[in-house]
Amino acid sequence: MTLHFLDEDAIRPFVRCLSFLPNLHTLQIGTARYDPPSTLLKKALGRIKLPQIKTLIIPEFAHPLLEHSHNVEDVVWVIEDVQSGPVEFFQSLMSISDSKLKRLTIPLILSGNPSRK
Description:
The protein has 117 residues and is an alpha/beta fold. It is 23% helix and 16% strand.
């Protein structure tokens, strides 16, 4: 499943829908030109648990999903902006107690030509 979030009105029904999909094991969230702040997703997730999710392929703003997917085994964190701070992502990753995480992949996708110094 690939989805582009635009605003809170789209995020809430999406999150609610996830809790009704017990066989969904892979969740991929695409990036948009202007990703919403992660606080919108965190607020929409509330107390929802997503134990069925085994693979997450997410951009930086979607890091709150880690805190709700305690059985995740594979995480692919897509970074599109090398200037982005990874602190919130790694804090979410560390919040998974009794983690079943087996693989963490962080591919670097550069948009445009970075200047090399």
